[in-house]
Amino acid sequence: MIGKKREKLKTEELERRYDELYSKYSELQFAFNEIKVNADNIEKQDEEIRKLHERMRSLKHDMKNHLMVILSYLNDGDDASARKYVSQIIDKLNSIHSYIETGNSLLNHILNEKLNEARSKNIRVKAEVENLAFERMQSMDFSALLTNMLDNAIRACLMEKDEKELIIKISKNKGYETIVIKNAITCSVLQDNPELKTTKQEKEEHGKGVPQIKHIVEKYEGICDFYEENGYFISCAFIPI
Q: Which segments constitute the Sensor histidine kinase NatK-like C-terminal domain (predicted)?
């Protein structure tokens, strides 16, 4: 009888130690995954900055030739050709956008990738971004949240026939780290689809990803909101600090 009790106690002790070791293993695995994600994002960020610098160096190298061409047109009295050539240079400069640097490698990567995607689809973009860490959020959750919010807005912009505009504001406000995404609309989205349910109709593209956005925000005891104001559809996520 005593032997069985001792054996039971040993088994329970082994199970307890196993649970402790497994818990530590899970924590280490999670930490490793976080480090790997950050390292991958830093590598992508470095590559994006390198490409930007290469484009700027190329433009600087060509600028002397551009000025000589403009001067030649002006000397010949061909003001129209000079203006047209200057306009072409300005268009090229506008196509080279500055790199957003926030101090958060994951935020850098997502923002720059999505802003480049939006611009390539002729969407006018404005961004106001503070240096925030979103430390409470796991990298995968933060990535899914911001990516879904931006993808919804970009898809909605592409449905517009008039001017396509996307506004991004990431800031700290009253104890919350906030993400606010606005996209210009000509017709109300919420009037026909107040619950933002996913449908097959293109005009209701905002339904895609909304359940995941809500789930992630609720996971961190935050608040999310979707509303329309002054010709914009606005999606907001508030994550408590």
A: 137-235
